[in-house]
Amino acid sequence: MSKPSPKVFDIITIGDRCKECEICVTVCPTKVLVISDVMNRNGYKVSYAAHPEKCIGCKLCEWSCPDFAIFVKPGEGKSRGLITWSSPEKAPEPAVAR
Ligand code: SF4
Ligand code: SF4
User: Fold this and answer.
1) Domains of the chain, earliest start first
2) Is 12 in the pocket of ligand 2 (CB under 6 A)?
3) What is the 3-state secondary structure (H, E, C) of 48-76?
4) Rounded mean pLDDT for each run of 10 residues along the chain, 98 residues in total
5) What separation in Å is there between the alpha carbon of 63 and the centre of ligand 2?
6) Whose CA is nearest to atom 3 of ligand 2?
């Protein structure tokens, strides 16, 4: 019988909704989350799962976020931290090459 694989999770931030309040960072019991250097169009730096392998799937971050900006779901073999956007227009503008 094969050994059950350890549970892994994907932690997804919807960057345009994040207001850099750090509530998710504070409530996470295993210190998965940080405020990243990615700035959204509202001028807020976006929360990011820097240590997704430490996630235990408790969803405290998801339930605590006042802006519905972070979600946790079972991963597919590899824990991941992702920043995504509600639509392509909501993504930060790319840096202009000079
Ligand atoms: S994801 Fe939600 S709780 Fe975390 S910093 Fe952004 S707005 Fe705050
Ligand atoms: S689900 Fe729990 S352990 Fe995982 S990032 Fe959110 S608060 Fe941290």
Assistant:
1) 9-85 (3.30.70.20)
2) no
3) EECCHHHCCCCCHHHHHCCCCCEEEEECC
4) 72 97 98 97 97 96 98 91 94 70
5) 10
6) 55
